[in-house]
Design a protein that fits this description.
This protein is α+β, with helices and mostly antiparallel strands. The protein is about 45% helix and about 15% strand.
Length: about 325
């Protein structure tokens, strides 16, 4: 999830775990500890982009790191606040880190739960990385918790409000994901789409309009489906994979890293004299508005690393304007 969500969620969790013992300090410590796994972005300042993509949400988002970090923080915090035990601080820190890596695994990016023992990245594709319907509740609760007196009886109520409603919405997203996946599988079968692999993931800022990809040996079909669609049909557009374009450079480690990162959901295009690697998991730039738009993640294979630094972010909200936003709302409401 985004940094603000981790901060306010961590603060509310800190209040739940240690509000009675630490007062408002639980908010600050909880918020800080909850964003620790994302400090791995610092490594991208010296790593090449392809390596940085794998480093982010890698070891710092693993169970092994959570245990080691909990031991380290518990030791430091116990020495600074001797009234609270090592065990108390270990549980506090470990719970905060688990919350972070658990929620991140439900985005499309992929999370290295099992690093360094396995490079498999967990991604359930159930909630968009920025979802205001999830984040707003702990955000509201955080504001009240900051201003309420430490001895106010209302603090527990607001903490439960923030964590409770966000948990309900998160649970809804998981149920919605399962039901949507079943419906989409049925539609692909009825439309006689020949595919061996597929995935679905929410479109930006909501959990009702879903981006659908189904692939075979030669390429991928991509389209959009709303849970409010009256017509159970997906308008799909085909994108050939064109693996053969990689032959002159397929031995490069950077190419291997990109393929590993994409989990095989990629296409290769030629833009002028430059080869472009598209990771389909991040969707298209305003694809619901224009199905022929570029993919959000497009990596220039024959350009300098500087041009690829913002490869995940540069297309996420590109070309957004009021007509595009209105079209997103309209398409989400159903065909």
């Amino acid at each position: 999830m985004d940094t603000i969500t981790h901060l306010v969620l961590g603060a509310c969790a800190g209040e739940a775990i240690a509000g009675k013992q630490l007062g408002k300090k639980a908010l600050a410590i909880g918020a800080f500890v909850n964003i620790v796994p994302d400090l791995d972005v610092i490594s991208q300042s010296w790593l090449d982009t392809d390596k940085g993509l794998l480093a982010h949400r890698g070891f710092t988002h693993s169970f092994a790191f959570s245990v080691l970090a909990a031991f380290a923080f518990a030791y430091l915090l116990r020495n600074s606040k001797r009234k609270l035990s090592f065990g108390f601080w270990f549980v506090f820190v470990f719970a905060e880190l688990l919350i972070h890596i658990f929620i991140d695994a439900f985005n499309a990016y992929g999370t290295g739960w099992f690093e360094p023992f396995s490079h498999y990245r967990v991604s359930f594709n159930a909630i968009f990385v920025v979802d205001p319907f999830f984040s707003i509740w702990p955000g509201i609760a955080f504001i009240f918790l900051v201003f309420l007196r430490t001895d106010s009886e209302k603090r527990r109520a607001w903490m439960r409000f923030g964590l409770g409603i966000s948990t309900l919405y998160f649970s809804y997203c998981i149920v919605n994901k399962v039901k949507t996946q079943v419906d989409i599988n049925d539609m692909l079968r009825h439309q006689q789409i020949n595919y061996q692999t597929s995935f679905t993931t929410p479109t930006p800022l909501n959990n009702w309009l879903w981006y659908v990809v189904a692939g075979n040996d030669s390429g991928f079909y991509a389209g959009y489906y709303s849970v409010f669609d009256g017509r159970k049909h997906i308008d799909l557009h085909y994108f050939p994979q064109k693996k053969y374009l990689l032959r002159p450079i397929e031995a490069r480690q950077s190419v291997r890293n990109l393929i590993r990162f994409s989990k095989g959901f990629y296409t290769i295009e030629k833009w002028g004299d430059t080869l472009v690697f598209n990771d389909l998991r991040f969707g298209q730039v305003i694809g619901w508005y224009n199905p022929h738009e570029k993919f959000v993640f497009h990596y220039y294979l024959q350009s300098g690393d500087r041009e690829n630094r913002l490869v995940v972010q540069r297309g996420r909200f590109a070309k957004w304007n009021m007509p595009v936003i209105r079209s997103l709302i309209t398409r989400t409401m159903g065909n």
